[in-house]
Amino acid sequence: MAQLSTRQKLEILADAAKYDASCASSGTAKRNSSDGKGIGSTEGMGICHAYAPDGRCISLLKILLTNSCIFDCHYCINRRSSDVRRARFTAQEVVELTLNFYRRNYIEGLFLSSGIIASSDYTMEQMVEVARSLREDHDFRGYIHLKTIPDADPALLNLAGLYADRLSINVELPTDSGLKRLAPEKDGGRIEGAMGHLRGEIDDKIDAKRKYKSAPLFAPAGQSTQMIVGADAADDRAIIAKASSLYDRHKLRRVYYSAFSPIPSPSAVLPLKRPPLMREHRLYQSDWMIRFYGYDAREIAAATDAATGCLPLDIDPKLAWALNHRAAFPVDVNRAPREALLRVPGLGVKAVDRILMSRRHRRLRLDDVARLTTSIKKLRPFLVAADWRPVALIDRADLRARLAPPAKQLDLFT
């Protein structure tokens, strides 16, 4: 077999990494080389073609160490039985690529994942060596995210956390039955056991840092995971319940959702087409509701369709919940606590904070609320203001139709 050039390997392994969605960098420790020492820097928000709060697009080198794998997960394009072109980087090649891309101002960090080669421990050793060499040999201070392997020795996971800003372990699928059917060589118990181990190490290092300034950081941007949506029969209720459980038990920074995408030469047990991309979007919205709006998994499940168990695609889950709990509305914008205002469809966290600040100085009218939000149409049935009361609007049978976005005619040639 002909030897592949570095460029050819990069084409193969960068393309193979596109299915990994979990690569944001929020919460990491800030480092820079402005003092003339080291190379690289890391920012507080956004990585890998994500957008920072000030609008900057921040990117990273996102590749696999190898797309060869000893596992045969049905949904994975890099599975053992897949007929794809294989490639493999050495640890030193990844280090050189990262530094060269950084020096050309193409990237601000590295996201590294891998198929399993030889064994879980051997693969994890190679990934840790990349991070170690960048940090110790080259004093690299940019962002590093390692996709860790749950079956690897805990000592290797500990080393990874000392060099990487964020670690992630994919749960892959929301149910044990789905994992057993589509990835029989993986074990949900071992995956969550590894997550629990990382949570313990993160907590221990945080405690140590409070007591001793010299204590080393351990994955300062925390850990994340990713679930595939639509590859198995799990509905949105199951996905939301799993995500909520992971947040509670393992203090994850993020759960990422990736809509199943048909792959070349697919397994016969996979669905023939991908789920609607809007389903992935609605799950991200529900995830936001859990993390920032005070909802729990049971409340969001109440917004799902009784027959399918999935969130509606035509309206967002916050509005769906409000329509199913009309007795909680309308709320008085001048008196309601923050928790009640956060449940009003159309009011975001920033808008609620502005309302709370503004109402200290005057009673708010509907026009005042309109100036603090992007749209007032969705708010009107759910709010009471100094000059506005919805009367019977909240009880209208056609309220959903009035608030849902209008249907759009698709264009064949767009």
TrEMBL record:
<dbReference type="InterPro" id="IPR013785">
    <property type="entry name" value="Aldolase_TIM"/>
</dbReference>
<dbReference type="InterPro" id="IPR058240">
    <property type="entry name" value="rSAM_sf"/>
</dbReference>
<dbReference type="GO" id="GO:0003824">
    <property type="term" value="F:catalytic activity"/>
</dbReference>
<dbReference type="GO" id="GO:0051536">
    <property type="term" value="F:iron-sulfur cluster binding"/>
</dbReference>
<dbReference type="InterPro" id="IPR010994">
    <property type="entry name" value="RuvA_2-like"/>
</dbReference>
<feature type="domain" description="Radical SAM core">
    <location>
        <begin position="53"/>
        <end position="296"/>
    </location>
</feature>
<protein>
    <submittedName>
        <fullName>DNA modification/repair radical SAM protein</fullName>
    </submittedName>
</protein>
<dbReference type="InterPro" id="IPR051675">
    <property type="entry name" value="Endo/Exo/Phosphatase_dom_1"/>
</dbReference>
<dbReference type="InterPro" id="IPR007197">
    <property type="entry name" value="rSAM"/>
</dbReference>
<dbReference type="Pfam" id="PF04055">
    <property type="entry name" value="Radical_SAM"/>
</dbReference>
<keyword id="KW-0479">Metal-binding</keyword>
<keyword id="KW-0949">S-adenosyl-L-methionine</keyword>
<dbReference type="InterPro" id="IPR006638">
    <property type="entry name" value="Elp3/MiaA/NifB-like_rSAM"/>
</dbReference>
<dbReference type="InterPro" id="IPR023874">
    <property type="entry name" value="DNA_rSAM_put"/>
</dbReference>
<dbReference type="GO" id="GO:0046872">
    <property type="term" value="F:metal ion binding"/>
</dbReference>
<keyword id="KW-0411">Iron-sulfur</keyword>
<keyword id="KW-0408">Iron</keyword>
